[in-house]
Amino acid sequence: MLELKHLYKTFNPGTVNEKRAIDGLDLTLQDGDFVTVIGGNGAGKSTMLNLIAGVFPADQGDIILNGVRLNNLPEHKRAKYLGRVFQDPMTGTAATMGIEENLALAYRRGKRRGLGRGISNAERELYREKLASLGLGLEDRLTSRVGLLSGGQRQALTLLMATLKQPELLLLDEHTAALDPKTADKVLQLTEEIVSGSHLTTLMVTHNMRNAIRYGNRLIMMDAGRVVVDIRGEEKQNLTVRDLLEKFNIENDRMLLSE
Questions:
Q1: In which order are the strands placed within the sheet that holds 82-85?
Q2: For the segment 173-225, what is each residue's pLDDT rounded down to a tens digit?
Q3: Which residues partner with 145 through β-bridges?
Q4: Distance between alpha carbon 226 and the CA centroid of its chain, in Å?
């Protein structure tokens, strides 16, 4: 489903601030893989997602999604293939617009826009059904402004928007890091239900090692812009936080704070 081949990305080349963020990255995801991504600060996790999404171009290498080479596609044209949820709950929604209006924008991702009726009754019922599945009571607040929602409600809505039109690849960039623990657990539970229910190919970046082990069928660790660990199957099921700490010698990493 996804192939990253020999990717390189250097920021501020030729200056004192030069930083090699991605250094010969190779990664292949199969259809339906739910891959959690861990690594220290500066390991290249978010840069990898930004390269896939087209936020900035790779210096070298190929990004191939379901047979389509994305390298030369701008960010807005890649959007029809991708769903993405950011760390900041405020990033993925339009605060001054209503819940149903935000969902309508997501529902039309990748489609041509015309002058027809805005939101049909059938479409509105679909939104109610999807919102009800979140268990947050948002199905009765379709016209409420999104800016009035709590951070957890807004992030759950963003997750729904990212998956409303099933993307070929879902990118989750520490999407629970800004939430309190109870709310984060709820959003992660919703994430697992949506990903498994729709068989979505997913990359989830996290600093929480316990969550990286618990969720998904595969775990990768990045360091210095490349994949240094790739664990899946029974090995991942039997993995513990202590195993990671001892095996990969990361006692001083910030990930410990999320143990």
A1: 82-85, 169-173, 202-205, 34-38, 218-223, 226-232
A2: 999 988 888 888 999 999 999 999 989 999 999 988 899 999 999 999 999 99
A3: 98
A4: 18
The answer to whether residues 206 and 49 touch, using CB atoms and an 8 Å cutoff, is no
pTM check: above 0.85: yes
Q: What are the structural domains of the chain?
A: 2-81+167-258 (3.40.50.300)
DSSP per residue, the chain: -EEEEEEEEEESTTSTT-EEEEEEEEEEE-TT-EEEEE--TTSSHHHHHHHHHTSS--SEEEEEETTEE-TTS-HHHHTTTEEEE-SSTTTSS-TTSBHHHHHHHHHTTTSPP-SS-SS-HHHHHHHHHHHHTTTSSGGG-TTSBGGGS-HHHHHHHHHHHHHHS--SEEEEESTTTTS-HHHHHHHHHHHHHHHHHHT--EEEE-S-HHHHHHSSSEEEEEETTEEEEEEEHHHHHT--HHHHHHHHT-TTSGGGGG-
pLDDT, average across residues 144-159:
91
Alpha carbons within 13 angstroms on the beta-carbon side of residue 135 total 6
